[in-house]
Amino acid sequence: MATLLYTHPVCLEHDTGDYHPECADRLKAILAALEGEEFGALLREEAPQAKREHLLRAHVEHHVDHVFAVVPPAGEHYHIDPDTLLSAQSGDAALRAAGAVVAAVDAVAAKQARNAFCAVRPPGHHAERDAAMGFCLFNNAAIGALHARDAHGYKRVAVIDFDVHHGNGTQHILWDEPGTFYASTHQEHAYPNTGLAAETGGQGRMVNVPLPAGSGSDQFRQVWDDIIIHALRQFQPDFVFISAGFDAHAQDPLAHLRLKVSDFKWATERLLDVAREFADNRVVSVLEGGYDLPALAASTREHVRALMEY
Ligand SMILES: [Zn+2]
Prior knowledge:
Elements: E1 3-7, H1 24-33, E2 43-46, H2 52-55, H3 61-69, E3 78-81, E4 84-86, H4 90-109, E5 115-118, H5 140-152, E6 157-161, H6 168-174, E7 180-187, E8 205-211, H7 217-235, E9 239-244, H8 261-278, E10 283-287, H9 293-309
Parallel strand pairs: 1-2, 1-5, 5-10, 6-7, 6-9, 7-8, 9-10
Antiparallel strand pairs: 3-4
Helix pairs in contact: 1-9, 4-5, 7-8, 8-9
This protein binds zinc ion.
């Protein structure tokens, strides 16, 4: 079975202005990197719009309404939070980003594909149940995880997040959701200053592993083997989601971990191991951060290569 690639042209029209790190060029670089012959076997699909009911599994009504209410006219921007801008197409782009993950869950559950990568923006993992934050409007990964649980009946859905920033939003949304698991490695004392090891969740299980600035491949792989993968195996997930941010790469301008391209392939393969053992290979990955364009493109290429080859 093949790997699905979901994206949508409107994700390139979510315009964050001239100097914003979370820019359309990120997605252009990724899509260009996935054009070569070796990616010819990808099943390429246009992301549908998420429905309101999908968003409301993860967000309160007033947040969903607020996002669409502040979409500005063409040519203007609206700051929904100090870091997070909307332009005229942002509402549609946010619906496509969440809709990609929902559609990917449906396709993987139906065995139309083995796994899927959602090359979408805006990203999602900082968006909390009731707030946009940190470049994120809706929490794509949490929406997908709750869709897998509530629409398909999966009992143990796991979201693993290797973005260099803690996914405070995913943790906030899943904290008290039974049958969910969230694990994150991230740079300690970095934005958004959540994700302490002591944050272990309520009915949802949270595993947080902050890494000191300057940590590289060795430290990363050790905590993944000893803590992240160990805890995930104990959870025995029946559906695995990846919040795939590539800003822990050494070249990234927004943070100070020192991962290499090969670490992202390694981490992806470790998650695929667990998915093979417990989840009949079901994996849906969604793009989060990554702001050095060459590193982002090369890291995403290795990530997708792992999804396809495994
Ligand atoms: Zn990030």
